[in-house]
Every structure is written in structure tokens, then in C-alpha cells.
Amino acid sequence: MADTINFTRGVPATESFPLADIVEAAKQAIQKHGTVIMQYGKSTGFLPLREWLADWYKVSVDQTLISNGSLQLIEFFGFHFITPGDVVFTEAPSYDRTITLLKRHQAKVVGIPLEADGPNIEALEHALAKHTPKFFYIIPDFQNPSGATCSLEKRQKIAALAKQHNFWLIEDAPYRPLRYRGKEHPTLFELCPQRTFHMLSFSKLIGPGPRIGILYGNAEMLKKIMKIAEDTYVTPSLLSQGIIYEYCRSGKLPAQIEKLKALYAPRLQACLDALDKYLPDAQATRPEGGFFLSVTLPEGTTTAKVLERAKAHNLNLAEGEAFFPEGGGERFLRLPYCALTPEEIDDGIQRLAVTVKEVQEQ
Amino acid sequence: MADTINFTRGVPATESFPLADIVEAAKQAIQKHGTVIMQYGKSTGFLPLREWLADWYKVSVDQTLISNGSLQLIEFFGFHFITPGDVVFTEAPSYDRTITLLKRHQAKVVGIPLEADGPNIEALEHALAKHTPKFFYIIPDFQNPSGATCSLEKRQKIAALAKQHNFWLIEDAPYRPLRYRGKEHPTLFELCPQRTFHMLSFSKLIGPGPRIGILYGNAEMLKKIMKIAEDTYVTPSLLSQGIIYEYCRSGKLPAQIEKLKALYAPRLQACLDALDKYLPDAQATRPEGGFFLSVTLPEGTTTAKVLERAKAHNLNLAEGEAFFPEGGGERFLRLPYCALTPEEIDDGIQRLAVTVKEVQEQ
């Protein structure tokens, strides 16, 4: 029987981890900074890495905070912004783990329908006529789970609305450095710095295991988040941060990002080609970077049925509904392609097409 | 002017970190487990370390969970147990960061007065007549902040009360492995496994920077905590855990614990000797291990006044009130001694005695 193919979790390719460089960085870090990175420290993270990351984004150190992975930043925003019943906006679909955390804080999560070029602005304006949210959580670049990228025009409009209605933007940008083709748009943080927190899952560019997330934002607001972080875990993992600092300091990150692009671009292309070949009628996003694309299955064909049937073909898929904060997503299918080879992708999408046909003929 | 002496944070001595061994462990870990520890994984932590830690406590792997530092476990208990207004018990005084987190979850935190041999049992029974708490958070060995150790008799009584009244015990035992003299009592987890979670700040024995906390408990309950952990941060820092695993696997932990005892025992003794010498009338705990002892200042002499006045002697002290969940602690002074040399301790307590006298004469 054919090997199992997993279109499930959005994880980087194991073969992309620069292990020899990490061994060297670990040695350097422990020898040079051992007494600091083996001790307690500030909740803002290992200072040299914080300085390096501030410089990377051309912001000041007090606008930069390092966390134990980026998801936990959502938890901090929950404690900072949300009292039960407060309204927050996300795109619909959005990152399922963020939605789970926001609901754990008993936020009312309103989903703004997402299109291939970003949130539907009319729907956003309609929602703003009803509620002023505490914040709008948005993934403008190569969105998880859809693969959509927000157009410049929509970014400008969203920034203007945030200023006009006085709500915060939480811009989650883990995939932004992974553009395989096309032109980059400015971030919301660039367009509207006074109303935007910009976050990313930084260590994912090297390997997620060290769990290093970053938050950039207004220094006064960050002080409050730092206190929440301190109350939560005292200090993030300084040992991990020291190692990643030495890796970054040695100048290896740009080449690593180029390596990732060279590895992932053909995987995205394999996805797009296989969709054209095996599922030519599929409504799929056509991203220019990132980890994901998504397919909306034909009318009457649910993801749940396809997911169930796909098991017979040794194809693992993820359900779509968890990505939608207020229901929907019955025909939504996320396809994370980074951890699969082009051959596996071709094979997997062929199996998907067969499965969809079987479900339609049931 | 004399150097500043800090009796403030309870941190281990920097000179105790086994840096050369950690360099070697890091190399081994990244070379052997790199593709696992640089990747996402389960919220329960790096499996080989989890297995090692299960074996260390002679429990099963599914009774063992590794977290990003032990404080965050309190956060998970908050999400698991507490709805706003729920009653929980702590000792009074107790670890201030735990009290802060419990209050962030809007628990009503009831403090059970602590004596040199553990919680006042009459007060506990009195509190139980009024409320059945969701749990009693207790630090039976070398308590933070008091230095008190719970007697065997009181442990047995607390275990019996937990069974009788159906509440959980959260036994926090970071200092238990650091007994410098005297005899160990059984843990609450040994006396009452069906009602006890046992947690500790494990990496503190090596260095806190890797942020490795452990939770031992009932496997079914732990499954729920694991889900909360996954929702919060997906995966704890596997890079740190891989390194600490290789350190532990190499058999170096027992010698490290002996090294800590040999380093800290004279520091505790220096504290006790200096108190006898300079503050013979002080009401101080006389612990047999751990990081802390505590002093109750004479009637009419507040910690706030002493703390303020001490600055003139380059002596930094911590306020007492944050350790008391329901008020009190105006004359409570915690003295963490591990990160100070015996000479600094003697000097510091001499300065403290001078300061107390000055405040009394004000």
C-alpha cells in the first residue's frame, strides 16, 4: 500500500534545519553567555537577541519583546485586552489555535470573510457599524490557513479604519519572509504603527523547537505585555534564545531564508500544478509564498466526508471548521505543503482528486 | 562605599551552573535528536526526557508532563480548575507569583496561616468548614518564602483532609532535593497520590534558564492539562529539553545536586550564625535546606520601613506583603541566601541588624 501522505499540520521541513550550525551556535552561546542563559532573567528575553531582532526590524529595543513561541503572545493579548464578552475580529478563516485561545478568554470572536486579496472590506465596515472590537487579528501575508495575501489597497483601508474606529491591529506575520515570487506589500505595522502589534513565529525560520516568538509594538503597550509575560512564566527559555542569538549573530539567517525559499517554492509549484492537472475545477488560492494553500470543495462535497474517505487512500487531511470562528468551513480544505516533497504533493493531490470524485459519486 | 547586597530574588548561584557539561550535552542533543528538538512536537515535552523524569520519580510516562518552567503549570491549573469566584487555599505566606496567577484567574485565595512545622491545622479545618477549595497549593519542603518544612504529622493530616473533603493538593516541591541536613518526610504525592499533583522547577537544579518544569499526577487528569498546554503554546522548548535530557542521561545530576548542597549548606549556616550574632531576638525560621529563611521583625518595625532604610546601607530587601494572599506580612522578611557568599551573608545580616535598630530608634 502506498505510503501515507499528511496534509495536516503546517510544520517546516525537517531537512531544512541547519543542525551543524546550531551545534556551533550552542557551543558559542553556552561558553560566552552561559551564566546569563542558564539563569533567570527578564521576561523580555535574552538582551543580545532582543537587540539583534530590534535591529532586524529597524525598531528600538523597547519596541521588541521575545516570547516562548508566538502563540503565547495571543494569550498575553487575551489577558491584556479581553474581559468576557468583549468583541474581537479575526479573518474567517483564521489560525485555529488563535481562535481557541481567544474563546478561552471568553471573547466574542467575529469572523470577517476572507477573499483571495484579503478581508472583505464591506463586511469589515458592516461589522464595525455593529461593534468596535478590542482588536482585529489578521495574517496579511500568505495567510494561515487560506494562503491569501492582503492587497496594498486593502491594507491601507484596514489601517485607516483602525485609526478611525480606534481599535488595535494584531498583525501575525510568520510567513512574510518566505515570499517565493511577486512583490512584497508594506506591513500594517509600517502603515499604521500607532495602532499595530506585529508578531511572528521567528524560530520557525530556523526550526520551531526553540520556541522563539517576537512581538514588535508601541513601547508603552509592550511594557504592559512584559508584565503579563513575567507573571506567566518569569523568563522565557534563555538557553534557546542564546543559541538562536549566536546563530543569527554569525550572519547565517539570510542564507537560511534563501535555502527555505529554494526548498519550498518548488513544493508550492507542485501543488499548483497538481491542482491544475487533477482538480482543474477546484477553487484554490494561488499564493506566492508561505506554507499553505487552500481549496474550497465543490458544492455538496464536505471536507468531513472527503477527510473520512481519504483515509482509504492513506491520505490524511484536516477538518476545515476549526478555522472559522462563527461556523462555516464545511467545504474548506487547508493544504500545507512545506514538509512534503514535490513527488508526494503530486501523489497526494492525485489521491485527493480521486477521493473527491468518490465522495461526489456516493 | 560597601558593595550592594541583594536579599531579593530566590535565584540559584551562578557559579553552580555546570557549563562545560552543558556544552557537551548540547552537542550530543543537537547531533542525536536535532530533527526532533528543532521541530514542533507534543505539548508533553521531549519524550526521552519525559521517560527519564518518569523513571526518576518511579511513576509512569503518562503521569509525567514537562512544561516551560513550573510557574506556567499554575496557569494551566487556573484554566483547568478555576471559574471566577472559586475558592483555592494557599499557605500564608506563599509564593507570590502563584498568588498573582491565581488572582489573575479571579480565584478567591484563602491563606492558611503557616507555622514553622507547616500549615496551622486548626485554621485549615476552620477554613474547610466554610469552603471546599478547588485545591490547596502547598510547598511542604523548605517553603518559599518562609523556609518552613511541613512535619510528617501535618502531612498525614492534610492528606486525610483532602480525601475527606474531596479537594486537590498541588504540592510544589522545587527545593525538596536540596536538603542539607535532617531527615526527609514523605511527599503528599506519596501519602495521597489520588488527590495530589506534584510539581517542581526541575531545571533550577542545573540552571533555571532552560525553563523546565515538571508535573506528576493522575494520568487522566494530566491529559486535560496537556490539552490546555497545547492550546497555550503548542510545544514547550524542545531544544532546551533535549539538552537537559542529554545532561541527565549522562548521569551527572546526582553529583550536581551534591555540589549544590555543598555550596548552599554553608550559606544557610552563615545566615543562621549571623542571625544569632546580630539579631539574637529575631523570630527566624531555621530550615534544613532550600533557598530561603524568613524573619518576622519585632512588633512595630515594618518591613516597608526597614526596606527603605536599608538602601542607605546598600542592602536590598524585598517587601513581605505580596506573599500574603489576604493581607498581613507587614513584618515579614524573606532572606534568599543561595546566591550570596557566607561573607556577603554575614555582612548583609549585620547591615540588616543595624537597619532594624535605626528604624526602631526613629
From TrEMBL, chains A, B:
InterPro entries per record: Aminotransferase_I/II_large, Class-I_PLP-dep_aminotransf, PyrdxlP-dep_Trfase, PyrdxlP-dep_Trfase_major, PyrdxlP-dep_Trfase_small
Name of a matching Pfam family: Aminotran_1_2
Coiled-coil annotated residue ranges, if any: none
Aminotransferase class I/classII large domain boundaries: 3-352
An example molecular function term from Gene Ontology annotations: pyridoxal phosphate binding
Keywords (A to Z) from UniProt: Aminotransferase, Pyridoxal phosphate, Transferase
Cofactor(s) needed for function: pyridoxal 5'-phosphate
TM region positions: none
GO biological process, one term: alpha-amino acid metabolic process
Descriptive protein name: Multiple substrate aminotransferase
Organism: Vecturithrix granuli
